[in-house]
Amino acid sequence: MVLRIVLGTVYTAMALGQIASFGHMSQILSAYGLVIGGAATMLAVALIAGELVCGIWFLARPRSKALAPVWVYTGVSVVWSLLAVQAYARGLAVDNCGCFGIYLSQRLSWFVLLQDALILLYAALLVRSARTASAPSHGDREEASRRVVIP
């Protein structure tokens, strides 16, 4: 529950920073060398929407067992990580990673990659805990299979 509140706060803040600097997001994402122009704008919209969905859901319902916000969080985290890893591997100079739009900017470095690795670790923990919480236990499955339904 605490992890969801922390991640919800971070992702909601990321989305708000990106919304406040939306006019710059296409340029920020273009620096990663994969998308430009309209595609960068569409990517920005998708990332911001995903951050808002999972961030607000985690804050509003931290005890929720729903998998949807966990998968949205995981998807957004994977996209940001892939952008960073491929740009770093190609030696691109990204002056602002864009996580908070033009706010709290940091240049792409090994430290950003470490942050992304932690975000992916948290995603794996969330997926694992959400799947464990939503999956019926072995005993529940056996009991259900022994029930006789009389019409």
In short:
The protein contains six helices and no strands.
Topology:
Blueprint: H1 2-20, H2 22-30, H3 37-60, H4 68-89, H5 110-134, H6 138-146
Give the C-alpha Rg. 19 Å
User: Helical amount among residues, as a percent range?
Assistant: over 70%
- Estimate the strand proportion: under 5%
Query: How many strands, what sense, and barrel or not for the largest sheet?
Result: none
Instruction: Give the number of helices.
Output: 6
* Elements, N to C (H/E): HHHHHH
Core attributes:
151 residues; mainly alpha; 0% strand
Report what the structure shows:
The model has no long low-confidence stretch (mean pLDDT 90). The chain has helices at residues 2-20, 22-30, 37-60, 68-89, 110-134, 138-146. Helix 3 (37-60) packs across helix 4 and helix 4 packs antiparallel against helix 5 (110-134). Helix content is 72%, strand content 0%. The chain is mostly helical and 151 residues long.
